[in-house]
Amino acid sequence: MEQGEEPRLNVVHVVARMSDTYGGVSTAVASLAALAAETLNTRIATVADATGGRENIERIQATTPVLEFRGSPIVGRWHGSLGLVIWLCRVRRLDAIVAHSFFDFAVLAAFVAATLRRKPLIIMPHGSLDPFDMKKHARAKQALFPLWACIARRADCFWTTTALEAERLKAFTSRSPRHLIGLPAPPAVHCVPSREAARAELGLLPESFAWLFLGRIDHKKGLVRLLEAYDAIWQEGDTLLIAGSGDRRYEDFISSRIGALTRGHDVRLLGWLDASGKATALAAADTFVLASDNENFGLSVLEALTAGLPVIASDEVYVARDLARDRAVALCMTSTASLIEVMRTVRHDPDARHRLRVLGPKAAATYSNEQVASRLIESMGRVLNGRRAVVRKPSHSDDRTG
Fold first, then answer.
1. CATH number for region 9-184+368-383
2. In CATH, what number does 195-364 get?
3. pLDDT digits (tens, 9 = 90+) for 385-400
4. What is the pTM of this model?
5. Distance between CA atoms of 209 and 32, rounded to whole angstroms?
6. pLDDT above 90: percentage of residues in the chain
7. What does the buried/exposed string (b/e) look like for 51-88 if buried means 16 or more CB atoms within 10 Å of the residue's CB?
């Protein structure tokens, strides 16, 4: 560090998994860790996952160190690693720990290290403390209430992605403040194929109307609702593209539901897509649909908006609620009837699709790296207030992913 230069903060992000199959959490961690590179020395500590793809890890390693620890016997089932705990307790340069998600061993490891070392602990729950997710394994969570309450009370603050997540967050009696950070829109892909080339690659006719779902194949994504709505409004030449992966049993369930549709032969399962595959699907599609029962943010919505696609999203996709105020997305409720109505309107109204194509990218631009980085740095400053480390705001030119 040069004389007169303000010290950079050393921050460790702790997350159970960083593999591609871990879904939006790993993508969010990667995007946050790459922010404010001029102000923060950032590292990611995670548990190795031999079964998941590594594209996300390899992409972030270009700018941010990712330390992978071997899962330990017994606790490995809960994404646990004693090596992770030991490293967090011994690593020399450490100003703050950011723990991602909540109900797993990685957060417990972060809590232990932050407590023993008297370092700030920031928890970013990614929806795990939302009432919808709290219903999963509710008995186990209730049985360990004292532990979760202790961790929540120890947190210096909670980072949330939307105002609605902060409002709904269940923090086990903790009064720790909620800081609204948000998430940056995914970076634009440099080599975007033309619509014609993308459609040719996917075997779509030039005149066909292609609906697109892009995300994890999971019960909360509203895929059954989407299939029923698509079957109800289908027209000659329509195609539904479903891109993503998930639990094999649920994938098989969705396949069986597709087989039972009247127009199931026009539904295409594309599987998990890498960055190039996503770019192709987005370029080929006419409208993106995310009719989830619950999304504490919804990165795929920003991804579709950035690509210039009209977007239909449910009112339980939290970021979509904010975007709908600017008429940047078409909002539906979490019912098949509501989704059918909105899909039919967008399908038959070219002016509505044009308006969404124009307003969508403008709204997505408000989730820039610079804005999210500014909020992140401000939060760090509030948490570290009174400590020796000085937090420096990024310059206006530092609008990059790392």
1. 3.40.50.2000
2. 3.40.50.2000
3. 745 444 444 444 333 3
4. 0.84
5. 35
6. 64
7. ebeeebbebbeeebebebbebbeebeeebbbbbbbebb
